[in-house]
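Feature request disguised as a bug: please show the residue count (203) next to PAP2 superfamily protein in the output. Example input:
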Amino acid sequence: MDLKKILPVFSYIFHPIFVSLYGTLFFFLITNSFFYNSQIIVTLIQVAILTLLLPLSMYFLFRSLGVVSSFTEASISERKMPIAVQSILLFVLIKFSVSRDTVAELYFFFLGGFFSSVIVLASVILKYKASLHMIGISSLTCFIFGLSMYYQMPFINLVAFCIVCMGLVASSRLYMKAHTYPELIAGVIIGAGPQLLLYSYWL
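Example output, currently without the count:
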């Protein structure tokens, strides 16, 4: 089996557009006993609409207009509009959908994602291309690690698996010639930084 031929698959599985839903599903998987089923379903629907369905719809609209040309690879100029839309949708999510009073962990996860999107938008304006894939996977890894520490649950194997996935995603981006090493490192910092800084607010 040629691993290099499989690497691009990780760019799709861990595309940043899916990360919010992955984090939400994992959160409710371990905390479902604390919530009514109706709360879980409503939150999942809201997250799916604002972080997956609407961005996908906007992507196809932007593609038809020639604003973007690829789902996994985009130039600096093609990134501005999708990232701006993502920032707005995350703001709407934390402002009107995910409440700090009821799902604080998710609230800070999305707040960290919002800060990351604002930072990467600023970097795009400054003509720097940080890896969105590494922002997504590193923020998800930190969130899972934070949940493990907060709930005192043994997620060591899962955290280790996420770290391996980070390596595979980074290798995928390099293999596809989508990013350089500094851009991947910048993505990890932008993704993990806000999550780690906000972790103290869970306690």
